[in-house]
Specification:
heterodimer, A: alpha/beta, 5-stranded parallel β-sheet, 19 strands, globular, B: alpha/beta, Aconitase, domain 4, 7-stranded mixed β-sheet, 8 helices, 16% strand
């Protein structure tokens, strides 16, 4: 607990408000306000409860939804071909219903990626602690909620006790000053930061993103930024709540109403970093220096502006030299090759990073009146059934279909390829997801991470492309 | 959970940085509802060809390292996904200790829930241990958790640090859900307080 009257960061404040008990060595018992559960990391946790005769302590604070391995094609509510996937989805169904948690089954229009469903349904609110057996839980930090991924043993711990045993992380500030130039998005911010700090740069820290460019982002954009805090190694990402946050939350199905809403907003307005609060690490980037970026390698830190060239492995230091060479071999690239000349054959738009309505709008704005290049397989997977319905209503779905995209049902899909949506060996994909690891999207598949607008541009030209060139032609 | 006190075993060198949890256990093996049986697919895509035959150059396929119980790895081991299948796969293979310069937070936490000890040491020490491990099955390490030190085959000792609570749990093989449930009154008290302070939650 921070001493009284000491200036505190946003992280300090949320942490302090959730500590139940602190041990002599600083180990804390932390209360968890929301626990999100999906089919892949929870079966062993529920099994553990059964074996020890323990119950789910707070089903009213627990939300379950299948997302990781659900098919994104029609008819999935009746049958899932993959037997192991089917067993996991069925296990979640049984466990969620038996425990009486809030549950959005596969045939519910509100089903989708857990990190899109939580905010959409008003489960995620400022000042909360939110956990899920998934590293991209960092997404919810966009609301000024302390949100992070946990392992299955911790899922079981939270189910049984509604708490976690934690030690406090350090405070890191990432400030983006000024306004973003045209064609540059939240995804470019978050990738640029990781490119700068490395995937271990945030280890042991919670990042607070601030500055004018962050303030100017929508909630969707802030979720994209915080989502990839984990790729920067941070335990969590945070953005202080403001009027943009309150406007997003207001009227959501599970957001407070009436007097409770007023009381909540009054509390939320206290959630900001005090002047003079101490950060252990500070990074400042000028928004005007950020360009549309892509990844060239197999680590999310392998980021360069689209105007750049594939780097020389020898230009790195230490263990990164061998890692960079290995990346180039895996990616089938040569040092010195221009990034915007790299041909792709697959485009994936979706994921908890970029599967929200604003992301689909940004891609559709580029695609409108255009078609994907011959031979390209392009797929858009909305982040939830409600995002999908909204895109249908706005005419965005038609733009995608007319351009030649497959218009799928909601789920994690090709971000991690646990369902049938996978790359084949040697396929090269422009992806709006969050990880370009070897084999992530399918064995031997090659992933280039980028924003939805950039992925749309790549779909049109058939190569990695600076979206600003297409914008000049009139988006 | 099994206790961890002292471990003497073969250390396998993996000098790659950023070994992520997708590499440790690829997604196709996450479709299990059990914790056991993942060892045969540990490092699957590094270890096997697409047709399932072993890649002879991969360290754990080499005779000297087939029974390795310790891994010496490059910086930022375990980054990426929160999948606890990664420590489950390591444990199922027989690995009880990983030594690196740094670990990703979630993986680091997950290790302790499964009786695996991740040890962070300075770069020069990791370099020395990596070189040592390169000598094969003759180069055995001893991990002494009680004494908080790594001892090489020639007797050189390298001290390491660890949070006292985690050390206590590992040494005694404690289940921390049981420990937390003993604090049920405090949790209930906190919930009552919160019902007044933040009733919208």
């Amino acid at each position: 607990m921070t001493a009284p009257n000491t200036p505190r960061t946003l992280y300090d404040k949320i942490w302090d408000d959730h500590v139940i008990q602190t041990d002599e060595d600083g180990t804390c018992l932390l209360y968890i306000d929301r626990h999100l559960v999906h089919e892949v990391t929870s079966p062993q946790a529920f099994e553990g409860l059964r074996m020890t005769g323990r119950n789910v302590r707070a089903p009213e604070k627990t939300i379950a939804v299948p997302d990781h391995n659900v098919p994104t094609t029609a008819g999935r509510e009746k049958h899932i071909d993959n037997e192991e996937g089917r067993i996991q989805v069925a296990a979640l169904d049984t466990n969620a219903r038996a425990a009486g948690v809030h549950y959005y089954p596969i045939d519910d229009i509100r089903q989708g990626i857990v990190h899109i469903v939580g905010p959409e349904q008003g489960w995620t609110l400022p000042g909360m602690t939110v956990v899920c057996g998934d590293s991209h839980t960092a997404t919810h930090g966009a609301f000024g909620a302390l949100a992070h991924g946990i392992g299955t043993s911790e899922v079981e711990h939270v189910l049984a006790t509604q708490t976690l045993i934690q030690k406090k992380s350090k405070n890191m500030k990432v400030e983006i000053t000024g306004s973003l130039p045209p064609g540059v998005t939240a995804k470019d911010i978050t990738l640029t930061v990781i490119g700068l700090t490395g995937t271990a740069g945030g280890n042991g820290h919670v990042i607070e993103y601030c500055g004018q460019a962050i303030r100017e982002l929508s909630m969707e954009g802030r979720m994209t930024v915080c989502n990839m805090a984990i790729e920067g190694g941070a335990r969590a990402g945070l953005v202080a709540p403001d009027e943009t946050t309150f406007a997003y939350c207001k009227g959501r199905p599970n957001a407070p109403k009436g007097e409770q809403w007023d009381a909540a907003v009054a509390y939320w307005k206290t959630l900001f970093t005090d002047d003079g609060a101490k950060f252990d690490k500070v990074i400042t980037i000028r928004a005007e220096d950020i360009a549309p970026v892509v990844t060239w390698g197999t680590s999310p830190e392998d980021v360069l502006p689209i105007t750049g060239v594939v780097p020389e492995p020898a230009s790195f230091a230490g263990g990164k030299v061998a890692a960079a060479q290995r990346s180039l071999d895996y990616m089938g690239l040569q040092a010195g090759q221009k990034l915007d000349q790299i041909a792709i054959n697959t485009v994936f738009i979706g994921s908890c990073t970029n599967g929200r309505i604003e992301d689909l709008r940004a891609a559709a704005a580029v695609l409108k009146g255009r078609s994907i290049a011959p031979g390209i397989r392009a797929m858009v997977v909305p982040g939830s059934g409600l995002v999908r319905a909204q895109a249908e209503a706005e005419g965005i779905a038609d733009i995608f279909r007319n351009a030649g995209f497959e218009w799928r049902l909601a789920g994690c899909s090709m971000c991690l390829g646990m369902n049938d949506d996978q790359l084949n060996p040697g396929d090269r994909c422009a992806a709006t997801s969050n990880r370009n690891f070897e084999g992530r999207q399918g064995r031997g598949g090659r992933t280039h991470l980028m924003s939805p607008a950039m992925a749309a541009a790549a779909a049109i030209t058939g190569r990695l492309t600076d979206v600003r060139e297409l914008m000049a032609e009139g988006v | 959970m099994d206790k961890f006190t002292t471990l003497t075993g073969v250390a396998a060198p993996m000098p790659l940085v950023n070994i992520d949890t997708d590499m440790i256990i690829p997604k196709q093996f996450l479709k299990t509802i059990k914790r056991s049986g993942l060892g045969k697919n540990l490092f699957d895509e590094l270890r096997y060809e697409a047709d399932g035959t072993e890649k002879p150059e991969f360290v754990l396929n080499q005779p000297a390292y087939r029974n390795a119980e310790i891994i010496i790895a490059g910086d930022n081991f375990g980054c990426g996904s929160s999948r606890e299948h990664a420590p489950w796969a390591l444990l199922d293979f027989g690995v009880r200790c990983v030594i690196s310069t740094s670990f990703a937070d979630i993986f680091y936490n997950n290790c302790f829930k499964n009786g695996i000890l991740p040890i962070a040491l300075p770069q020069d020490v990791v370099d020395t241990l990596m070189e040592d491990a390169g000598r094969g099955s003759n180069a055995r390490l001893t991990i002494d958790l009680e004494g908080m030190k790594v001892v090489t085959s020639d007797g050189t000792e390298f001290p390491f640090e660890l949070d006292p609570f985690r050390r206590h749990c590992l040494l005694n093989g404690l289940d921390d859900i049981g420990l937390t449930m003993e604090k049920a009154d405090s949790i209930r008290g906190f919930e009552e307080q919160m019902a007044t302070a933040r009733p919208w939650i």
